[in-house]
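User: Structure please.
Assistant: Input sequence and predicted structure:
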Amino acid sequence: MQLNELVSDTNARQYAIQRLAKLLRHPDDLAYKAEEVRRKLAQEKLLIDAQLNTDVRRQFDDVQEGLELLYSTSSQIGRVKSDMQKVDDLCHRAQSYLPNFDRIQILSTAN
């Protein structure tokens, strides 16, 4: 057990003890209020579980959306890379069509 877990566990126990102390103020409360306390805690647990499920679902949906966006972006990058390769190939072919391309390039940069 790590230190964070120990601290968290200790805090949770202290909180639970405080809650029970508020609910069960007299010794007779344990006999008469135990079922009521159980029902309240069960209801709170259901609410917390529902909220947790909602939050987990929302996070799952966000992760799924992020992965889909990442895949889409990766696909777009692949298309851009392919298109740039085609442009580069066309430039090299165009250069081979001109026998004096090197000279033309030097003159065009000089002006």
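The chain has three helices and no strands.
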